[in-house]
Q: What sequence folds into this?
């Protein structure tokens, strides 16, 4: 299989664009037989789910070919690679390189690896920085030979939704139950709910088949039609009830865009993955996955150096030659993979003369994604048996995604949608006996924090802390009123973070959590590519392709390794 491009998206699935070579025609034929055999009108739910999982694994890279290419690149000592940043994208790319014998050095400015996939301790409690639900990372863990070191927990539910006139829990990996629960709550929308799930099933059937852009509108009509819709337009095709549309919008809420701006295809793929495959969570915490990747790199003679910030990318005759760190050290490299933000990579680490004006103009047209306001709580009571859902989403009373986006952008904690994560519902050992761990998450824009920036980084944080505490208390009060009665009396430990906290630890512009926005002009085949105009420089982060999230950034690291092997292999 030699695709022109592979486009992985959230949900653990990938679409392949292929050449019409004999080999790919044969591959396409086999896949079509596979689809026709497994996706017929009478397919059972069990067969459908099993096929989905098989398809997720089937869309990974053709490793025999890539490893054959890697074996021709000798001597390995002549091909050192430096990875800037130890986020999951950088660590994944570095692990593939190290396992294939290439000398790789990862340089990370923070004192822990993982980017947003990290954890920290406060007193007796361990707090995850991000929610860390994943879709379809099993193939990565197998390819990197670390599956036995990473445990994934699968909750029974997708999430609990709490709204003005309804409350419900949606099940995982149970499309029939999903349809039944929604139809009972919204009986006038029953026909639309059934049609929506049928459309998602049809999307998955098409998703399993390679395609060519010239014929995609006829061979993959569902994919093609969804690619031209916003999420709002997609939902309007099926539903009228604003409460139901607000509920379903939760499946796309992780992108931080209102339904009017979020690509319908992204929303549909993510929703299909959640409904049919289900979400998993990393046990004991996200930091565990990051640490396992570091261990795999070091076990294969790679290096991960913390508290070391890259100042500049060195070049010679238009190609990368290495990097220079803030302490004046240089690290020679045949290739550099940047896990840092794209703005920092091209505007701070490289000479402006090296980057084509057209490329910079394209990047400057993109917008950083949303950020988070987070509150972590360590409680002095056990909540595990009192609540059924890990993720609890509070939907604003107005049911208007545009109004919610305005509140989110303004970091208005009294009006914005927010989520409460009860970690002890995942497994009983998460907290110590008699304790519980809770996180409150509200997406927010950077603009309200911009005027604190100069003082914050100058160490003058009094006004900033006052505002941070004010917002945290509003979220705690809303959580007590709507999710956890009596919450304030249980709090033993509290901490909070803002977009400025994110910027401090990751150096991401605006404290962005998903790199660039996944807008209609920067997603799927339109997403900023991992290859760059600078010879030997690649991206492997949320700022490249396919974007942000645990699965996407790992795929980004994987596809960057593939691209590097193909580039080097062509020269041997």
A:
């Amino acid at each position: 299989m030699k695709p022109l491009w592979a486009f992985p998206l959230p949900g653990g699935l990938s679409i392949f664009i292929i050449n019409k070579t004999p080999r790919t025609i044969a591959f396409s034929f086999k896949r079509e037989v596979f689809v026709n055999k497994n996706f017929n009108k009478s397919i059972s739910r069990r067969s459908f789910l099993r096929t989905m999982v098989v398809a997720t694994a089937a869309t990974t890279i053709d490793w025999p070919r890539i490893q054959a290419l890697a074996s021709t690149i000798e001597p390995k000592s002549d091909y050192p690679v430096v990875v800037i940043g130890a986020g999951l994208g950088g660590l994944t790319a570095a692990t593939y390189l190290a396992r294939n014998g290439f000398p790789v050095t990862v340089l990370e400015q923070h004192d822990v690896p993982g980017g947003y996939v990290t954890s920290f301790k406060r007193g007796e409690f361990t707090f995850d920085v991000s929610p860390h639900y994943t879709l379809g990372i099993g193939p990565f863990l197998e390819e990197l030979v670390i599956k036995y070191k990473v445990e994934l927990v699968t909750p029974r539910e997708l999430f609990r939704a709490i709204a003005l006139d309804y409350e419900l829990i949606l099940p995982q990996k149970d499309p029939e139950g999903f349809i039944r629960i929604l139809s009972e709550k919204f009986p006038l929308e029953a026909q639309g709910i059934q049609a929506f799930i049928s459309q998602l099933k049809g999307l998955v059937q098409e998703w399993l088949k390679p395609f060519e852009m010239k014929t995609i509108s006829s061979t993959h009509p569902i994919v093609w039609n969804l690619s031209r819709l916003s999420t709002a337009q997609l939902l309007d095709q099926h539903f009228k009830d604003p409460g139901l549309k607000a509920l379903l919008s939760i499946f796309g809420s992780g992108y931080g865009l209102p339904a009017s701006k979020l690509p319908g295809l992204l929303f549909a793929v993510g929703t299909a993955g959640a409904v049919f495959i289900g979400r998993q969570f990393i046990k004991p915490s996200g930091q565990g996955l990051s640490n396992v990747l570091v261990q795999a790199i070091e076990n294969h003679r790679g290096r991960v150096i913390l508290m070391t910030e890259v100042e500049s990318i060195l070049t010679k005759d238009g190609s990368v030659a290495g990097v220079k760190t803030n302490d004046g050290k240089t690290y020679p490299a045949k290739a550099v993979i940047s896990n840092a933000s794209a703005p920092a990579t091209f505007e701070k680490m490289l000479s402006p003369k090296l980057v084509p004006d057209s490329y910079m103009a394209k990047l400057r047209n993109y917008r950083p994604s949303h950020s988070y306001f987070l509150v972590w709580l360590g409680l002095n009571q056990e909540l595990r048996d009192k609540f059924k859902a890990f993720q609890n989403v509070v939907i604003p009373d107005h049911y208007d995604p545009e109004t919610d986006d305005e509140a989110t952008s303004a970091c208005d904690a009294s009006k914005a949608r927010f989520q409460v994560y009860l970690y002890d519902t995942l497994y009983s050992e998460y907290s110590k006996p008699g304790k519980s761990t809770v996180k409150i998450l509200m997406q927010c824009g950077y603009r309200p924090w911009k005027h604190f920036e100069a003082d914050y980084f100058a160490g003058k944080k009094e006004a900033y802390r006052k505002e941070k505490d004010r917002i945290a208390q509003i979220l705690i009060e809303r959580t007590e009123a709507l999710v956890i009665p009596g919450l304030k009396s249980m709090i033993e430990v509290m901490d909070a973070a803002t977009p400025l906290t994110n910027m401090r630890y990751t150096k991401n512009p605006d404290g962005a959590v998903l790199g660039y926005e996944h807008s209609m002009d920067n997603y799927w085949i339109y997403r900023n590519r991992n290859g760059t105009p600078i010879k030997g420089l690649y991206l492997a982060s949320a700022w490249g392709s396919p974007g942000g999230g645990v699965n996407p950034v790992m795929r980004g690291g994987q596809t960057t390794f593939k691209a590097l092997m193909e580039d080097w292999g062509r020269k041997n």
About this structure: Residues 370-509 form one domain. DSSP finds 22 helices and 22 strands in the chain.
